[in-house]
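User: Working on a comparison across species. This one is Probable malate:quinone oxidoreductase from Blastococcus deserti. Can you predict its structure so I can line it up against the others?
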Amino acid sequence: MTEHGAVPDSANPDVVLVGGGIMSATLAALIGVVAPQWSVTVFESGPDVAGESSDAWNNAGTGHAALCELNYTPAGPDGRVDPSKAVAINEQFQVSRQFWSYLVRGGMTGSPKEFVTPVPHLSFVTGEDGRAYMRNRYEALAAEPLFAGLEYTESAEELAGWLPLMMTGRDPGQTVAATRSVAGTDVNFGALTRLMLDDAAGRGVTVHCNQRVQRLERETDGRWRVTVRDAVTGERRTVRTRFVFVGAGGGALPLLQSAGIPEIRGFGGFPVSGKFLRTTSPELVGRHQAKVYGQAAVGAPPMSVPHLDLRLIDGDHSLLFGPYAGFSPRFLKAGSMFDLPRSVRPDNLGSMLGVARTELALTRYLIGELLQSRSARHATLTHFVPEAEEHDWDMITAGQRVQVIKRDPATGRGMLQFGTELIVGGDGSVAGLLGASPGASTAVSAMLSLLEQCFPDRIPAWRPALQEAIPSYGRRLSDDPALLAEVRADTMQVLELNG
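Assistant: Here's the predicted structure for Probable malate:quinone oxidoreductase from Blastococcus deserti:
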């Protein structure tokens, strides 16, 4: 260290990754494939990696493959269902599975069952309108190669076999319909993140915990000066690097703002916290071996889609039902109450105010959720589990989600985006990821996009290594049935998803 806390150039890394979550872990692993000679340092503000949105209790763990999430298959005015978004997300998830398989084959320690297990994915609706939608959705998806094997039923008797916990006590006259895919999975992204970063550390990647990156500053030679504060001692230090990725979840927005890149102008964030009802009752868990998504209530945002998920975390099974929305101005669970107000800048004030005016339905939804009593939350659960008893379920708080606010290029007004946004500085030396779902499940595709946008001149040389790690790289599985069959068989075998 120099007298001013700066690390000498010889000790500075080629790459700095801010945040010890699934995105940074994935990028570190990809850099290990294409540029193993680069030095990489990870700074995580918490006491351990994967403590925020990547933690198993802080995300749904669905392994978003669009097999069951109805918000990815919208219906048009004529009732026809557009499968394009579902197909795109499933393609991205297949890319993740291929890369995980490559890491496992390459010796990433631990059994694949530590982070991924097979769990059927179902979509469930009630009422005549719901059934009509489900029929159209099934017809649209069943024609897609990636969704081969999707099953459909309107039979309450058959559903009693698929979902005994949800069908017991249900009105026998109620109209029901569902689809099921036995190709679904439950993914523990916290465990996967830790395995990936442990593997990266074995290759020389340095991972620092309790180190909060406070500021990013561009220096005259084009490098980035990264100011880091030790959360335990309060000591500050700086490192210089040629490339910075900000994968800090909700903490990404303020850091990209501090970098001063024009690409972040106009962007804001709206934090939403989630709560879930959880049961660990062996009797209840034994009667619901699936992940089931329903339809959001009329006027509710996409993030409110109710689901009842089987989870396997640290060897223990449980069921989670939700989400129930909450609100906190924090951008991270361990963040500050001033995160939201500090993120408001002159360049994004118009976007923020525009969303405040246009998203009145979201505001009403959040207020209603915050005012819900325990009995009202339990009543929502009984739509899924008719005979649910309050005493079997406890409330847990999941991770913070910061929804992206950006300017609509067509109107210039602010709009709320329920997805992810990759922000890349003009010269490709800094990048960051904003937003939430589908997030972790599509991390590999997101980080591949980052490599392509930040290092376009290197991609031709990197392509063979990327294709070895991800056989479908540069191609669409939905357009190549032979490759799809080969990839699907390989990933199922390597990730031990045959049982």
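For your comparison, note: The chain has one domain: 9-483.

User: Helpful, thanks.
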